[in-house]
Amino acid sequence: WNKGTTNIVTSVAGDILINPNYKDRVTLNVLTGSLELRNLAVSDTGEYGVSITPTAGDASITGQATLNVYEPVTNVRITTNNTDLVEFNDTVRLSCSASGSSLSFLWFNDSVEVTASDRVRITDGGATLTIVTVLRYDQGSYTCEVSNLVSSNRVRLTISPSAEYYGEGSVVSFSCSADSRPEAQFRWFINGEMSSSTGAQINLVMEQSGNYSCRAFNSKTLRYTTSQPEEISVLSKNISGSTNKKTYRFIPVEGTSVNLTCDASGSIFTRKWMISGVELKPSENIVFHEEKRVLSFRNLTRKDDGRYTCRISNPVSSQSVNYTMNVNYGPDSVQISGPMEVQEGSTLKLSCSAESVPTAKYTWTKDGTTLGQSHEYTKDNIKFSDGGEYICQATNDITMKSSEASPTGLSTGAVIGITVASLAAVAGAATGAFYMFKHK
């Protein structure tokens, strides 16, 4: 027997000579001339010939046969150029690879075979599946089945419930099936690391994101097949957030710029800012930064007073954090209320007010002399000498601003001129003169 030009075994007069390269792998039946070749390898593929001479001097009888040895299919893998796809915009390419020889490829989407169309292209002998301009209907679980004449490799992994994201601590059921006789044994892998889980169906408490896969093993054929990994995203259900300011001592003052920062731990997908339940939109005064992590006021006004809410969420949970902003302003619009004229001996009562947060402090002066520090000024038994201009000064300790008045009336404060009239009853011309003198 020969393989090509290489002799495998020769039998002459009952003596059998075996090529050392085939020792322990071949057996020759001298009665029938048949050759048994064991532990086949792909390298055994080729043309085999036999020459038989019945007796010395007789013509030889020859025969030929072709042997094809196939490597079983193993290690099927799918890779993709993109998993975050936008409808009508992106193109996805799935590439299937496997160990084995003379491989054939079939693609399935949720157990339905994928065939070529205007948007779907199957190239590289079926190993590459390209979907041009993806649609929402292209979503699904894609499987690549690889086979040759002696084996096929298709392990099906099913996840229930099916979701794009899973909350941390949720329970997910995994099922694995394979065509095998005897029935396959299963092991489970997370990110390529073997887990302690076994069996065709397992329930796992979701703790980490990663690629989950199962491996089917046949104890008789000693072959194994691994499923296409399924990428699972696990998100934290516990989002803890806080709203804070960038400045160490934060006091909102009208006319200044302010940043509110919304920070959180956990898997954060979106942030939404609201005031009194109404979503905030960008404007000339309101600007968002860092995907709405920072809410910036370019020029704070008293109208920006209110309760601000930052809502942080991901597909499995959400949390809201609040911050109440009290804008400090003023003092503005200082006003004095009280009489312009009083009678001698009566009581003078003046009141001062201003628009201010926090409440302004007030100081009364007359002719440079401080009269008191209250929003009201009262003096009993008024005299002629008490007539004149009374000034109210309002001060805000937070904004560090004040509104004060001067007799010239050039400031934004409040000034009131008070005339004190006589009650004396003196007859004749002397009375008039006295009154006019005192009045003047």
From TrEMBL:
TM stretches of this protein: 414-437
Residue ranges of domain Ig-like in the record: 72-160, 168-225, 229-328, 331-408
Keyword presence, Signal: yes
Keywords in alphabetical order: Disulfide bond, Glycoprotein, Immunoglobulin domain, Membrane, Signal, Transmembrane, Transmembrane helix
Keyword Membrane: yes
Domain of life of the source: Eukaryota
Pfam families assigned to the protein according to its UniProt record, in alphabetical order: I-set, Ig_2
InterPro entries: Ig-like_dom (IPR007110), Ig-like_dom_sf (IPR036179), Ig-like_fold (IPR013783), Ig_I-set (IPR013098), Ig_sub (IPR003599), Ig_sub2 (IPR003598), IgSF_CEA-related (IPR052598)
PANTHER family, per the entry: CARCINOEMBRYONIC ANTIGEN-RELATED CELL ADHESION MOLECULE 5-RELATED, CARCINOEMBRYONIC ANTIGEN-RELATED CELL ADHESION MOLECULE 8
Name of the protein in its database record: Ig-like domain-containing protein
Organism: Neogobius melanostomus (round goby)
